[in-house]
């Protein structure tokens, strides 16, 4: 028996990301425009980096609060007051190593081996991957693509619920489709969770990347304090901090001690000097976010116009997030197409097969980049599409 055969099957079965496969293939290509990953092209702003550097210079390199330093948790609470009109105590937030640790801990609290977690697909692959590693069976429920955009049939969620179901994972605005739930859909999902006594893990990290004139609808708009809803979030997207790996989890205050213990037995907390950067992001970053959303809105319109003019692309203009999920007439193998696009027109996109069920026949690109790059990448993609 080889060593790999001795590894726990859940770990051994964790799939390689289809996004990573294409990125590893093309990341060193000269002149390539990389649109495969979910991040912008701007480095972290100086007002954030400088705050972290000051913390480092001041010797903030020791063990710190498991749940996050009080100043950061208070800043997160103020963020929700400004953008969501909600008053929360600082003790309702747990600082995490990126959004992924928040998701992992939320799963640890809500489900275990043999349980099931329902999620909406096509989907960012990391939730299903994390669930599988934990021994939880991820159950996809397909969104519907219509002439009016992507939509969620809540009856499909209801049909997927079994006695083993413990949690519903909802990402809105969505990666990769841009689907954005309206208040009525969120209410229907919440009612379903209440009926079956299920948890909801709400991934609303793109709530401010919404092109409808205000933030996207949130479970916070309709829930009561005792509802079984956990919110996962990250500094990555809003403040150009993907490499920092700092996020947070919003929970009921009665669960704070539980989550602090999970932090203790996993990461033991986020470096204090990095949390100083998070405070600066929250306190001083609203103008930066607004400028990023405005740029992404323009980039979305550019790529949709250029690809749409080929007459060979099917997509829904995304109302939120910063991705275009599109199908190309005649494309039979999305993974092969992604590699071919790297080779022939030097643009990096992700195959739809990386995004779980329902992604077959699609490609995803991230348009959160400089407008001149998005225009150039769109023209290159249009050339590849026309040649098919």
Automatic annotation (TrEMBL):
Location of the Aminotransferase class I/classII large domain: 37-381
Source organism (scientific name): Aminobacter carboxidus
Transferase found in the keyword field: yes
Domain of life where this protein originates: Bacteria
EC number, as in UniProt: 2.6.1.1
Phylogenetic lineage: Bacteria, Pseudomonadati, Pseudomonadota, Alphaproteobacteria, Hyphomicrobiales
UniProt protein name: aspartate transaminase
Catalytic reaction list: L-aspartate + 2-oxoglutarate = oxaloacetate + L-glutamate
Coiled-coil ranges from the UniProt annotation: none
């Amino acid at each position: 028996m080889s060593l790999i055969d001795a590894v726990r099957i859940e770990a051994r079965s964790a799939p390689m990301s289809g996004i990573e496969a294409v990125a590893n293939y093309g990341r060193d290509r000269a002149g390539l425009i990389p649109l495969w990953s979910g991040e912008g092209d701007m480095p972290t702003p100086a007002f954030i980096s400088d705050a972290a550097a000051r913390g480092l210079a001041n010797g903030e390199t020791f063990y710190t609060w498991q749940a996050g330093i009080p100043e950061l948790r208070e800043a997160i609470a103020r963020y929700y007051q400004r953008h969501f009109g909600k008053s929360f105590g600082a003790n309702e937030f747990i600082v995490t190593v990126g959004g992924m640790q928040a998701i992992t801990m939320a799963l640890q609290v809500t489900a275990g081996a043999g349980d099931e977690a329902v999620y909406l697909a096509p989907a960012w692959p990391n939730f299903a991957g994390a669930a599988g590693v934990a021994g939880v069976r991820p159950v996809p429920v397909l969104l519907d693509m219509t002439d009016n955009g992507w939509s969620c049939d809540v009856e499909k969620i209801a049909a997927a619920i079994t006695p083993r179901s413990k949690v519903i994972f909802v990402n809105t605005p969505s990666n990769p489709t841009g689907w954005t739930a309206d208040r009525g859909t969120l209410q229907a999902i919440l009612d379903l969770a209440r009926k079956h006594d299920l948890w909801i893990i709400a991934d609303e990290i793109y709530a401010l990347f919404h092109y409808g004139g205000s933030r996207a609808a949130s479970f916070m708009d309709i829930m009561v304090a005792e509802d079984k809803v956990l919110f996962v979030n990250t500094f990555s997207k809003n403040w150009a901090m993907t490499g920092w790996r700092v996020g947070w989890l919003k929970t009921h205050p009665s669960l704070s001690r539980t989550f602090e213990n999970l932090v203790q037995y996993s990461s033991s907390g986020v470096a204090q000097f990095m949390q100083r950067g998070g405070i600066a992001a929250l306190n001083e970053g609203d103008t930066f976010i607004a400028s990023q959303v405005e740029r992404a809105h323009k980039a979305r319109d550019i790529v949709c116009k250029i690809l749409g003019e080929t007459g060979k692309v099917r997509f829904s203009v995304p109302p939120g997030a910063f991705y275009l999920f599109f199908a190309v007439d005649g494309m039979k193998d999305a993974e092969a197409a992604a590699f071919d696009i790297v080779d022939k027109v030097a643009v990096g996109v992700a195959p739809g097969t990386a995004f779980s069920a329902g992604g077959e026949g699609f490609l995803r690109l991230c348009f959160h980049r400089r407008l001149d790059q998005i225009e150039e990448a769109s023209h290159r993609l249009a050339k590849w599409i026309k040649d098919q």
